[in-house]
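Hello forum,

I keep getting stuck at the same step: I have a sequence, I want structure tokens, and every attempt I make locally crashes halfway through. Rather than fight my setup again tonight, could one of you with a working pipeline run this one for me? It's a single chain of 546 residues.
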Amino acid sequence: MLSIKIVYSLFCNSFCIDFTLTFCYNWNHFVKKVRDYQMSTSTICIVIAIVAYLMVLLYLGFRFAKGNNTVGDYYLGGRKLGPYVTAMSAEASDMSSWLLMGLPGVAYACGICDVFWTALGLGIGTYLNWLIVAKRLRHYSELNGSVTIPDFFENRFQDKSHILMGVSALFIVIFFIPYTASGFAACGKLFSSLFGIDYMLAMVISAAVIIFYTAAGGFLAASTTDFIQSIVMSVALIAVLCFGFSVCGGTAAVADYAFSLDGYISLLNTHDFATSSSVSYGGIITIISTMAWGLGYFGMPHILLRFMAIEDPDKIKVSRRVGTVWVFIAMGVAIVIGVIARAMVNAGELTALEDSERAIIGIAQKLSGFGILPAFLAGVILAGILACTMSTCDSQLLAASSSISENLLHGVLGMKMNEAQTMLMARTTLLIIAVIGVVLARDPNSSVFGIVSFAWAGFGGAFGPIMLCALFWKRTNRYGAMAGMFCGGAMIFIWKFLVKPMGGVFGIYELLPGFIVGLVVCVAVSLLTPAPEKEIVEQFEKISQM
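Reply #2:
Ran it on my machine without issues. Output:
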């Protein structure tokens, strides 16, 4: 274990040297900009609001650091989450910056059709995940002592070969590291565009804050900060909605303008601003494909872990109601904000946006010019965008870290470590993963939402069908689970890079074919191979009676 400490020390020292050189170079660049540019009062207010928000996150990391005495505490919070923290942390970690940037951006660009079907699929998926998966997974994971999702798959099927654990852990690492990098990139782009500072400096500072409070406080810190972040996100949505309506002349004025655009307020067509005409969305196949986003929830590790961590399974009903209501309202408001931004441009209150995903940023900057208090509120709105991203990054870092340290190193490779050594390994792997994410995010032109969409499909196709079969079909065996997981995950890559480029009917979202293939293969292989052992069936029946 001395070797681990040496590697940890060398890695940290190397990282600190690289970080210091990068920081100093970019800081000098930033100082030069400040000399040439006097910050306005509104900008200072925005900075103060964002810095205060970041300081709260750092404080929570300090506060929860002392409570992590075991791996179960670090990765699952000792199963002590209350119903409201469970609900809001799950949904905040789910939404990411898609809520405040993606949804308004698509609505701004082409109307409500695409975002409506996407939001409807996500809302239904959220509700069904809470309704049918949450309580059963909570009971099952506690009964077989699972701390991570790969743990659960191995323990559910009593796979002594560790293949299920290894494959599922690898899928988590493959999809979560670039997913985390996309979050770091989103933070860097936000600060860089707002304050004109270097992208790399902005991205590294944002990443450092996320890394610190997550590495120090573990799951409880991530979940508590996610709960706070959901509140900040809610305040941001309400503030933008109210301000937008007021400057446009009220709800009637916004509605009149939206309905005047051909196909803009339609569930079957979109609006093409280049030709000012209505364009068909693509029919029932496209709608089903878009709604298939909701299938991703059944395989999303950072959301499923919240179900495993809730303290009282009987309070899951409360969490379900709170989480589902918040998701539907938040997504609905985000879509309306996109419409408002378009109406503000038409009314001359907002400059036309080259990047539609900056709609909410443009509205916040407009608000900041109305005085000190509005400027602080604008800072809260921008902190809300930051919150969307951070609430997802911290959960992804923990999930990826647990897959390497707890599942691959300890479970598959059999490394023997005491509790203190295991905690050191957990924090070391989290730091290494985060630094890899920073390196991957160094290109400011990298696509954020394309990566999010692909990773979401990956988890939905690889884990979703297997999770449902594991929880609700006792005939499922480890052979079916292995085959379904591999084929579902592989189909995501095949459809995305080989089939989808053909266009036409093949241009559907890769999650749908991936999920179907994973489910069919899991069922078929389970039926063609020996039935599960008696002990596995008895455990399944015991869970069914709870």
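Strands lie at 269-272, 277-280. If your local run keeps crashing, start a new thread with the error log.
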